[in-house]
Write a sequence for this structure.
């Protein structure tokens, strides 16, 4: 009889433990709760929560309120408020990331950017330079005001404006040597910006020449 009673007590305790484990199985880990909170309240593409330390074991379920007491990103202190006045302090290293446009290869000054020249890269937000471009569509077709190496973020101050003369635009080809000034009609073979190099076809001779776009209508050709 005693053996049967002991077995029954053991069975009830084991059953209660299993029920408790099942009830908590659906609870999210505190690190995931904090990561979700940061993603919902900050404009970052991705977040990692590392080296998490809790002041106490959190109750079951999700906190009803989370407060950032200091940090973010970096070493951050959260207050996770649960029901019945229970608050658990959480300290963690929070790394935030954003995607920015970067050079896929070395790019020379005045080169019109193509899809193969640029790509999106993931960078920690504290390392992203001011004015970094986050949309590839904002850089395709534009030229750089300076040369840059590969795998470097593209910032807006490096970008020239929209093309003033598109490929196929009619221009005046100007040749000046001493006191002699010769002009003829040409047609650009590239998108061009003022003060940038551009190829153009001499419509009279059909020869292709290279010159500098000195204004919206004129290409100066040096001989």
């Amino acid at each position: 009889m005693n053996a049967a009673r002991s077995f029954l007590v053991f069975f009830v305790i084991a059953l209660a433990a299993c029920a408790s484990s099942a009830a908590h199985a659906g609870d999210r880990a505190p690190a995931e709760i904090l990561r979700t909170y940061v993603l919902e309240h900050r404009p970052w593409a991705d977040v990692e929560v590392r080296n998490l330390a809790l002041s106490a074991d959190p109750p079951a379920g999700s906190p009803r309120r989370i407060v950032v007491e200091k940090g973010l990103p970096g070493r951050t202190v959260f207050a996770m408020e649960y029901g019945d006045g229970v608050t658990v302090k959480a300290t963690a290293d929070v790394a935030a990331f954003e995607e920015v446009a970067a050079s896929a290869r070395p790019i020379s000054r005045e080169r019109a950017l193509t899809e193969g020249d640029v790509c999106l890269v993931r960078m920690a937000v504290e390392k992203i330079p001011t004015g970094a471009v986050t949309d590839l569509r904002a850089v395709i077709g534009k030229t750089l005001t300076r040369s840059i190496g590969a795998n470097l973020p593209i910032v807006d101050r490096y970008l020239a404006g929209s093309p003033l003369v598109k490929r196929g635009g009619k221009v005046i080809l100007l040749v000046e040597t001493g006191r002699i000034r010769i002009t003829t009609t040409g047609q650009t073979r590239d998108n061009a910006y003022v003060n940038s190099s551009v190829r153009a076809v001499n419509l009279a001779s059909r020869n292709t020449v290279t010159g500098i776009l000195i204004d919206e209508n004129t290409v100066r050709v040096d001989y």
About this structure: The CA atoms of residues 127 and 212 lie 37 Å apart.
